[in-house]
Amino acid sequence: MEKYLDESLSIEERVEDLASKMTIEEKAGQMLYKALGVERLGIHPYNWWCEALHGVARAGTATVFPQCIGLGATFNTELVQKIADIISTEGRAKFNEQKKYGDYDIYKGLTFWTPNINIFRDPRWGRGHETYGEDPYLTTQMGLAVVDGLQGKGKHLKSAACAKHFAVHSGPEHLRHEFNAEASEKDLWETYLPAFEALVKEGNVESVMGAYNRTNGEPCCGSKRLLVDILRGEWEFKGHVVSDCWAVRDFHQNHKITEGPQDSVKLALENGCDLNCGCTYEHILAALENGKLTEEPIEKSIRRLLATWFKLGFFDKETEYDDIPYSVVACKEHREVALEAARQSMVMLKNDGILPLKTDNIKTIGVIGPNANSRTTLVGNYNGTPKKYVTVLEGIMDRADAMGIEVMYSEGGHLYKNSTTRLAELFDRDSEVRTVCDKSDVIVMCLGLDSTIEGEQGDSGNDYGSGDKPYLQFPEIQRHILDIAINSGKPVILVSLTGSTMDYRQADEGCSAVIQAWYPGGEGGIAVAELLFGDYSPSGRLPVTAYRTTEELPEFTDYSMKNRTYRYMENPAMYPFGYGLSYTKFEYEGGGEAALSDEMEFEVTVKNIGAVDSYEKVQLYVEPINPKCIVPKYELRGVKPVFIKSGEAETVKFTVKKKDLMLVDDNGRRFDHENGFKVYISGGQPDARTFELTGVKPVVFSLS
């Protein structure tokens, strides 16, 4: 038996043996995302490019969970870990079948380029809905949950997770191939790097993907600072690094920091970018032949890549996942988890009492808007194909039909154009909208965006913004029909289906209720309908700030955190990070003095004093007293989802470590703060705007 096939040996020994048997040409052939394989050694062709942001993506049928920003809004890491475990289960089930037929095509492997743990620092960023929001702590916890669920705890990796995009990457999309993101040392270590550090050092994530842009002058996929000094040096990362797709080509074509492809290969490989999503590593052998490159970085990279294959069990007779049957793919149990995630992702931003709908007084519901019956808006981007779709209109109709309530429907207009066809006059659905409003007792407006205009450059049809949003308002046609509905005199409920927060001023002033539903997954329309009819109490919380205007935001290209996100923003939010309403009320008891130690426990009693059973998403924030330098006014440092029945109470405990209270100075150094802290615990931020909206004051601990 060849040593590399001997399962009693260590992975390191097996990797070394296999690498020693490969020619330099064969090694170079495995370092492109479409690996060639080596038949004589039993290495099958393999496509490293696989996606699984919120379900196995682009590979046919799969359970499609809410988009990541919606998962962030659940504030429930246990649920997200369960979802990631389901994703890897379905990935293994599909892989088991595909390899029977020799299908090694793109998107059909087990190296999932997930999670996206970039910080959603600006709501205009089109890809922000792939992230878990604006907060480093929440992003870290969600990222760790995803890695844990994807990789599993077995003898073999269930699948290989990938932390992306390293680092300081969040738009603008149309500049990403040439842009230099300038970040201070403080912002690097306080905001942009913590989630990556945690996923490497605590989560043991198998791979890291570099970003397209330069960071402080160096292209991320060839950055000595990021890849050598920090990732493999300070953090001792042992896995493999993959470039973003065609990012290495950008070195010479767009960043203009190398002369040509061979120089780009040299820069990327010598700084530890092991795998090229793109075509530039086709020039490895030429760079070697021309003396621009030595064999040393090739030898290092191939060993890291082979190690991942061994960890996944590709050279073993069997793995513990080989018997996962195809019947689990998009099965009823998995789709129920997706539906529960959609329920917990819904954020109720306003409710004047119209919700839940009082069906005794309703004979006709009007459903209006381009997102009411859209399948595209359900699934976001980087998505699989649901076995079953349920749009918002279909969800409402199913419920209404069972109660004898009539539903009237109007698309209202195109998603963003001011007429539905080229030949029609402007606002050509106005009369239909007015008719539906006139004949309905209550109106549900389903507005927003979808992945055709909000997303990644190239994936999006938003030519002028490359997927970014030039402003936060809903498209003009949508504002127009919303105005018609508001002026009809009927109560209006806005259901916003977007991947980000929007300008809600028109809705806040004129609508009876506002629901932020994100891109809620294949059957997300059921969750929206259940919320409207009161089958459950909403518990989602905003993972991003809802600003009042675009004008108050800094320049999109400015990566300073000054006046960004709840941690540093100067104006009061329209709706704050961490905010969301419920159909019940919670009361908090606790607080007092606490001593600063290596590990501290904070305990509060949370009582459901309303009439409805509900989840409460309990949040802990820490505020430093009299800091010696500029730091966030306070930061999230704990989240606990608890389900409490009406009239009952739960004791909620948080454990906070002293090291997690360290602050970051202007030079990027972490230091112990000596003047003490205030610790706030409630269902939202400890800010005046949250209190104005909820009437709930947080429990306060003085920590010194």
Description of the molecule:
Helix 4 (77-100) packs parallel to helix 5 (136-151) and helix 5 runs parallel beside helix 7. The N and C termini lie far apart (63 Å). This protein is 29% helix and 17% strand. The strands form 7 sheets. The protein has a 6-stranded mixed beta sheet, sandwiched between helices. The model has no long low-confidence stretch (mean pLDDT 97). The chain is an alpha/beta fold and 704 residues long. It contains 21 helices and 24 strands.
Secondary structure layout:
Elements: H1 11-20, H2 24-29, E1 34-35, E2 46-47, H3 68-73, H4 77-100, H5 136-151, E3 162-166, E4 180-181, H6 185-192, H7 194-201, E5 207-210, E6 214-215, E7 218-219, H8 224-234, E8 240-242, H9 247-253, H10 261-270, H11 284-289, H12 295-312, H13 332-345, E9 347-351, E10 364-368, H14 376-379, H15 392-402, E11 406-410, H16 430-438, E12 442-448, H17 476-487, E13 492-497, H18 505-510, E14 513-516, H19 524-533, H20 565-568, E15 586-590, E16 592-594, E17 599-608, E18 614-624, E19 635-644, E20 649-657, E21 663-664, E22 670-671, E23 677-682, H21 688-694, E24 699-703
Helix pairs in contact: 1-12, 4-5, 4-13, 5-7, 9-10, 13-19, 15-19
